[in-house]
Amino acid sequence: MLTLEAIENVLSAQIKEQALPKEIKNPKELLQKWSYFSNQVPRLLGAVLSRVKNPDIHCLYAKTIYGECGSGKKTKVHGRLFTKLTNNSPDLDFIVQSVDPELEQIFEEALAHVSQMSQDESIGFIVGLEAPAYDILDILKKALVLVGVTEKVVTGSEYMLIHEQVEKEHQESGHEAMEIAIKNGSDLNQINQGGKYAVIFWEKWWN
Fold first, then answer.
1. Are the CB atoms for 149 and 207 separated by under 8 Å?
2. Going from the N-terminus, what domains does the chain have, and what CATH number goes with each?
3. pLDDT tens across 164-187, in order?
4. Between the CA of residue 18 and those of 15, 56, 82, 205, what are the distances in Å?
5. pLDDT over 70 at 191, yes or no
6. What is the mean pLDDT of residues 138-160?
7. Residue 115: left if φ>0, alpha if ψ -120 to 50, beta else—which one?
8. From CA 155, how far away is CA 13, in angstroms rounded?
9. Cα–Cα distance between 86 and 106 in angstroms, integer?
10. What is the pTM of this model?
């Protein structure tokens, strides 16, 4: 039987098994990818917000976007906090924001696809997008150490401290959004379909 919990659990397992890197072969490339994603993710969240009609869900997603954008403080934008963290590496050449055209295309295609989703699909997509958050944080920590950032600096950084807290909030917001949607007659199958696209996105992103 398809339930909210089943959707979340299956998506999390699929992304961890199918999409996330099993080993860090090129930590510089991995960090470049995340730097780009971290700076562009408010656009993806905004595309999801544009597909949703329910005002209560608007509030949940707007709060997430506001947080990603530093809660109104430009120096606290999450993408900038991540760059600040990577600047602790003695090997700074990978920080340069030269965008890989193929990576940019993957992101722009996802953005265009999400912009055409139904409300229910977009809700599922956000759940899938947030599902691997803590696994990704662990991968980032390992990659940062591999490029010479000390474990103490990584774990004590503002970026990591914030994300250890807010990722749980984001996942809970996604679950709450699904609950609200279902109470208002949304289709679980459509939500699940949106989540499956998140799996596809993460597979393309990391591989």
1. no
2. 4-206 (1.20.910.10)
3. 989 889 989 999 999 999 999 999
4. 5, 33, 25, 12
5. yes
6. 96
7. alpha
8. 25
9. 23
10. 0.93
